[in-house]
Amino acid sequence: MDEQRTVKVSKYLSKHLRHQPERLGLAPDEAGWVEIDDLLAATAAHRFRITRAELDHVVATNDKQRFTIDGTRIRANQGHSIDVDLGLPPAEPPAYLYHGTVARFLDAIRAEGLRPMDRHDVHLSADRETATRVGARRGRPVVLPVDAGAMHRDGHVFRLSANGVWLTAAVPPRYLRFS
């Protein structure tokens, strides 16, 4: 499977497992799981045929580990805009986490902090390098350190997704470090 096809399949799966399963006639369970056979049949019916080998390849090689297979089921690890409960337990974060963004959003972030926007949670990275890559998707990246230790001590809940993304409901401005 070439890289272009891998990216195309990954984006298609992200769109339909995280945001629009109904467009394929899928109904994920409360935790976001769908049967793999149902997914493959639905993609074929919508003229985007994915083989089981391609699906396994995308899940195994995705650099962001966006998906998990559990037996006969698959789901996205995080980033949903549909209502799901991933069942992730609260976790104590490291002292600092990082958020990648671009300069055009800084005024709003200074005023309102980090909000989940159309997702369930704010996504944070454990290291600057990952946050830099995330921010670079929209332009020249700006990395904001988040005082996650202070947030946790103040009662904010963090969860760690299966692919290492830290999730929290919001990050108030006082916990952000602007350089």
Task: Give the topology.
Elements lengths: L2 H17 L14 E2 H10 L6 H10 L5 E4 L2 E4 L20 E6 L3 H7 L9 E3 L3 H9 L4 E6 L1 H6 L4 E3 L5 E3 L11
Antiparallel strand pairs: 1-3, 2-3, 4-6, 5-8, 7-8
What does it look like?
The protein has 2 domains: 3-76, RNA 2'-phosphotransferase, Tpt1/KptA family, N-terminal domain (Arc Repressor Mutant, subunit A), CATH 1.10.10; 97-175, ADP-ribosylation fold (Alpha-Beta Barrel). 33% of the residues lie in helices and 17% in strands. The chain has helices at residues 3-19, 36-45, 52-61, 106-112, 128-136, 148-153; strands at 34-35, 67-70, 73-76, 97-102, 122-124, 141-146, 158-160, 166-168. The strands form 3 sheets. A 3-stranded antiparallel β-sheet has the order 1-3-2. It has a 3-stranded antiparallel β-sheet with strand order 5-8-7, with no helix packed on it. A two-stranded antiparallel ribbon has the order 4-6. A hairpin with a 5-residue loop joins strand 7 (158-160) and strand 8. Helix 1 (3-19) crosses helix 3.
Brief rundown of the structure:
The protein has 179 residues and is α+β, with helices and mostly antiparallel strands. Helices cover 33% and strands 17% of the residues.
